Automatic annotation (TrEMBL):
Annotated Gene3D superfamilies: Tetratricopeptide repeat domain
InterPro entries: TPR-like_helical_dom_sf (IPR011990), TPR_rpt (IPR019734)
UniProt name for this protein: Tetratricopeptide repeat protein
Length: 346
């Protein structure tokens, strides 16, 4: 049985905030409480409040502010000799590094966070940090390395009845199944994630699960109408909670659904919107996926094949440097489809 979802990253004076609090509310409250803690000369409270500020900035796409905030939180935690708070700050920094495409740094920070969490007896930050490592590997396409870790974390979350973490693990495993072609298994896992998130009132997790279901309804069943309906429901949540990254991924997925339906002009516009959103928040993976969708849409709309070839070659190089193997494979398939053999080999 799962309890109501909670947000363990909202700590100290901010524990009254809900997992569904809008990020602008979290940021405003976090900054106010942070200033109070600084005036009171309490480094432990500065660290805890600074964590919420860092996470709000990160999820709003303010990556430079998020970077400053997690580092300040870590320094305060170290001053207070608070091992748990140090681990949470490193978790935030590692998550930000992954979001910005700095995967080696993400591995390092999240690994340190997991070690500190274990040393300090904070099983929640340890679990979140291991989950972050698993997600980093999944995003890079290294399913063999992190598949077992995802399953382990899912089992732990189920044992504790921790709804939010269970939903996260289910969605990660579902995405791997979807990307390797097992649509039936992926759909069942996304469906379970959506049900648990809805019962636990985890709106963020529910929005991500709806996005996953929409993807499969479109790719497997060709059910464009139902897919767009689910994405509209998820978008409403993203806007209510100011989930900038989730909203951009929603727009990118809407582009995917429209592209598959042959509605290339609409897809082009959605990919362009998502690309602008990802660039604003410095999220290179989302940017690359949007660039790929946009290139394919423009090719369908009659773009010069040589321009398409050049775009895909550049995108492939970007992904090779970033270590995003699964997305690189997607570009290779696009090159095979749209680029004449002589162009693709050049």
């Amino acid at each position: 049985m799962y309890g109501k979802a909670f947000a363990p990253e909202y700590q100290g004076a901010l524990t009254t905030l809900s997992v569904n609090s809008s990020l602008t509310e979290v940021l405003a409250e976090g900054l106010e409480r942070l200033r109070e803690a600084e005036r009171a000369g309490s480094p432990a409270e500065v660290a805890r409040c600074g964590l919420a500020v860092a996470e709000a900035h990160r999820r709003l796409g303010d990556t430079a502010e998020a970077d400053r905030a997690w580092k300040a939180s870590y320094r305060a935690a170290r001053t207070a000799q608070d091992t748990g708070a140090m681990a949470w700050a490193l978790w935030s920094g590692g998550t930000l590094a992954r979001q910005r495409g700095a995967f080696p740094l993400a591995w390092r920070l999240l690994g340190l966070a997991a070690e500190l969490g274990e040393r300090g007896g904070d099983i929640v930050v340890r679990g979140y940090s291991l989950a972050g490592l698993a997600e980093t590997g999944r995003i890079q396409g290294d399913y063999a390395a992190v598949g077992r870790l995802h399953e382990q974390l899912l089992a732990e979350a189920r044992r504790r009845g921790e709804a939010r973490h269970t939903v996260w693990a289910l969605e990660g495993i579902a995405q791997m199944h979807r990307n390797t072609g097992d649509f039936g298994r992926a759909y069942a896992l996304f469906e379970e994630a959506a049900e648990i998130a809805e019962r636990a009132d985890d709106r963020r997790g529910h929005a991500w699960a709806l996005r996953g279901l929409a993807d499969i309804l479109s790719a497997r069943d060709g059910d464009t109408g139902r897919a767009l309906e689910l994405l509209s429901r998820a978008e409403e949540t993203c806007r209510t909670m100011n989930l900038s990254s989730a909203l951009a991924y929603n727009h990118k997925m809407r582009g995917n659904v429209l592209y598959r339906a042959g509605r290339y002009e609409e897809a082009r516009d959605l990919y362009g919107l998502a690309l602008s959103e990802f660039r604003t928040m410095d999220e290179p993976r989302g940017e690359a996926l949007s660039r790929l969708g946009l290139a394919k849409s423009l090719a369908r709309l009659g773009r010069d094949p040589q321009e398409t070839a050049a775009e895909l070659v550049d995108l492939a190089a970007v992904l090779e440097r970033a270590g995003l193997r699964h997305t690189r494979e997607m570009v290779a398939r696009a090159q095979a489809e749209f680029v004449p053999e002589t162009e693709g080999a050049r």
